[in-house]
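**User:** You know discrete backbone vocabularies at least as well as I do. Would you mind producing a protein record, from residues through to fold? Write it directly below this note and I will take it from there.

**Assistant:**
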Amino acid sequence: MEIKAKLLEKYETASFGASGFKKREFVVEYAENPQYPEFIKFELIQDKCEQLDGFNIGQELNVAFNLKGRKWTNPKGEVVYFNSLQAWRISAANDVSVAPAPGQSDESSSNLTEPEWLNADNSGEADDLPF
């Protein structure tokens, strides 16, 4: 999954346990409907924590993430469910390449020719395809 959103908060990286598990959280404002913006908290884990360093509060981001869910039974025997949004790639929203507008030609594409096999006359060759 991927969304485009504005960075609102970024927190410091926290380490847990003897294994050194690292986690860093950040909050974005996602405005699919500008009248009702959503404030969504994501987490980065391990080596992904550093991805956030190059971005500033207020910057538009593309956030690629996985939706994670876990089931846990507490000491009272009650089943509890947890969800997390684990980001795995963050990029500046303006990093997306833009295709030329209709009617405009890209100079590099005007020099392209059709592949030879497309125009080849294969009527004399046997067709060995089963369909």
